[in-house]
Input
Amino acid sequence: MMSKIKSFDELKSVQERLKAGRDPKKPCITVCVGTGCLAYGTQKLVDSFREELAKRDLTGRIDFRTSGCHGFCERGPMVVISPEKVFYQRVGLMDAGEIIDKTVLKGEIIDRLLYVDPQTGEKYVHEDDVPFYKKQTRLVFGLNSKVDPQSMEDYLAIGGYSALGKALTTMKPEEIIQEVIKANLRGRGGGGFPAGWKWDETRKAKGEPKYIVCNADEGDPGAYMDRSLTEGNPHLVLEGMIIGAYAIGSSQGYIYVRNEYPLAVKNIHIAMRQAREAGLLGENILGTGFSFDLKINRGGGAFVCGESSALFASLEGRAGEPRAKYIHATDKGLYDKPTNLNNVETWANVPFIIERGADWYASIGTAGSKGTKIFSLVGKINNTGLVEVPMGTTLREIVFDIGGGIPEGRKFKAIQTGGPSGGCIPEKYLDMRVDFDELTKIGSMMGSGGMIVMDERNCMVDMARYFTNFLVSESCGKCVPCREGIRRMRDILVDITEGKGREEDVDLLEKMASSIVDGSLCALGSSAPNPVLSTIRYFRDEYMAHIKEKRCPAGVCKDLITYSVDPEKCTGCTLCAKVCPTGAASGERKKVHAIDPTKCTKCGACRESCKFEAIIVR
Amino acid sequence: MVNLTIDNKKIEAEAGQCILDAARENGIVIPTLCSHESLEPTGSCRLCVVEAKQGKRTRIVTSCLYPVAEGLVVDTKSERVMNVRRLVLQLLLARCPESEQLKEMAAEMGVAAEPRFTPDKDNVKCILCRMCVQTCEKIVGVSAIGFSYRGTQKNVCTPFQEDSLTCIGCGACAYVCPTGHIEMETTGDTRTIWGRTFKMKTCKVCGRYFAPEDQLAYISSKTGVPADNLAVCISCR
Output
């Protein structure tokens, strides 16, 4: 337990002492224990490392650290050995002993654990050289791998809470707000509203107390950057919030976090307790007289509670339903008091702005969008994971240079950005620079930073149906256009994918969409038609193929496709017959196989298994 | 007072008033399904949307919630507005094909049912306007009914759809319901609502059954008026 730090000077000396106690040349084994890696069973690897180190009497002589998510989730479990930063991926749960004996003690590289670029076949030894990392700017997220999320000493040793000390002792609240305005930090939760202006409005609003809230209710399918930040570096989020509270004049804050993120809840709890013990949270922070405390509130699993007014309703213990926001939350938010809501990533950017200055921050990014953005890159992509790049990086760089392109040499088709209510962006915009404004221009949005990559085997109508269906189940049901309108759109999309679409359906969908955008009460409803609108805009021909020709060009919609075998390509390897769950695929060894359409359930197992591209889907 | 324009008519309205009230006071009709003078507006039916222009910015707003402002120019029947209203009515017609009120309203506004929307078959007339739930909570003060589930599953019911012990059988919910969805049957000395049967009290003067005993007991406990003094119907008071 750390004793109370009573001044900024004392904080500096604590940081110095911790830093001095750490020899940068001492070997250190870092194991990623982000949720992705834990799902691979990494806890066993961690236990094994501790055991093996103890067996060799090396505990304490070699540092061992568990850290938050490194982002390269495709390749877990991951181990990095410092000081050289040797990078091992897909580490086996029994590999600990070998890594200690060979790499840590003798400096030998274990070849089979190295990352091999699937496109070039090149092998990489050091973490920084791996293309996935090399082309990123890991400003906010990079600290994850340097700290154990449950250790405040780790965070202090890398200079953590310096920004808070600087803010509290050398800056007036107004100066902090001006700095955030000048940095043009825009909300990372979806809206992209300038955070500094919001802070300023809340500070100037009449009414006490003032609240600040951290939105950690990340609910977009496939998006997990906020999760990884809160799990992996909770003190960074806390530091940002405490600085914000001081600037805004708030004494009470809340973190609204998904109940489905137990590790985030746990690590934030631990971090809050540590910060309180160290005098960085609670009464009289750093001896400056400023007091601020935080409470955690766990969400009940409603996507709509990411919307500010629904989030406040939920925090107050009511059903998570939004209200019209003609009066801003900065005037009347939580408990009808002035409230400033920012999401996890926005808060996490604050310490950097204060520490290094607005000018430095604003030098990263594009004219209208500053700093970096963490994207969650998922779907048909080689390097699934979390990617942090400067605003203005092109989609092509993200998908191909960092993401390593599309698996199995397939063709890129579209990328869905901005979560379920974002839009699908086609290939022709791959060279577009990603920022808040550019994405909106082409009918999508930044959202919280989800990116789902689709290839030629994804049907865009089916995609639109999937996302619309997600929003149907997440609509709160308060207003008519969202509750009734989105489900009717979904029904029409289902009809189209089942070959029951009508020629006038596309026009009707567009007409409904524009009225739902205009007529819905909150942003969930008014952005819900985006997946339909953007797929119609860029992939109208696919809709038409489904409707007019009763054909699914991507071979996805089961009612419109049949599976058969290409006799030219089939080698009679029998693999399809082995994987077929219904016995529809059959044939003799080394003879052309066939698929019985009366038995075929179109599950696609044969197509996935065939090494000769001999399964035809039409 | 603030000056604004609604449908080309120059209007003076009280600051803080919403567009809907200002329009109504000036004889401009905006259709609604979830608005009641005794209840806080919720903006859930979306029929009352209007197009509001402030400076260069034009947007669709909810007139029951949007406050009037100096220089605001409101169009209650623009194309965008009518498109939203048409869709809302078509969606509600498909949800509640049995509702006469909705059919009348649609006919008045010249809106035909959208053939592409298959009418729901569960025979509900509830459009989830929230007025019953609000009335029960804010006006009556017993919160006997509320919402369960969310989105398309959302419905109004007593908690866990069991007999409500807090319901006093006052029937305010049925009275305020715009589509006649809430069923209440009063015959002789009983009234049945939300699956519970209440015993009715006779008026001391005329001898008619006039209110559920539970309701009178509730009023007595709330107001401190002895139950005996409440045993006279409105006509005989």
Notes: Chain B touches chain A through 36 residues (CB under 8 Å).
